Amino acid sequence: MDNKATGNTTEGTNANGIKTKLTFDDQVVKKIAGIAVSEIPGILGLSGNAITNLTDKFTNGNNPTKGISAEVGTKQVAIDLDVIGEYGKNIAQVFDTATKKVAEEVKNMTGLDVIEFNMNIDDVMSKEQYEEKFENKKKDDNENDKKQENNTRTLQ
Q: Cβ neighbours of residue 135 under 8 Å, at least 6 residues apart?
């Protein structure tokens, strides 16, 4: 097989002589990074800027790429994250763990090397505070959805 990786694109010819090309959208890299950091103790969640928060009001708020930006090059990627840290945790160790985990996952899944990883801590909360804040938001959103359903009528 004569495949060569040219960054987020792998081109070549497979064993059957078929010309092949594999590419990765920036959103894919962002989603990989988001899922990877969601599994790290000490990171309660991703946070976004005003535009992301505004977008959440018009969607279900379940956006795994919220607070993440990625610049994908031909062989490398740079990732920036905005996160909410857990109070009482060693944020420097959490950062080291996040850097390693995201770089490994991106490399394993795409073949791209993470050459820059920046993590901005937007807020620090206890798990209880985080759950209370975001569970209440989910409850409020669900109640608003129910009110909207009840306010609609069927025309015949």
A: none
Please tell me the pTM assigned to this model.
0.70
Secondary structure string (H, E, C) spanning the chain: CEEEEECCEEEEECCCCCEEEEECCHHHHHHHHHHHHHCCCCEEEECCCHHHHHHHHHCCCCCCCCCEEEEECCCEEEEEEEEEEECCCCHHHHHHHHHHHHHHHHHHHHCCEEEEEEEEEEEEECHHHHHHHHHHHHHHHHHHHHHHHHHCCCCC
Q: What are phi and psi of 44, to 5 degrees?
A: -80, -35
Predicted confidence (pLDDT) per residue in 64-82, tens digit: 678 899 999 878 999 999 9
Whether 114 contacts 152, CB under 8 Å: no
Are the CB atoms for 87 and 124 separated by under 8 Å? Answer: yes
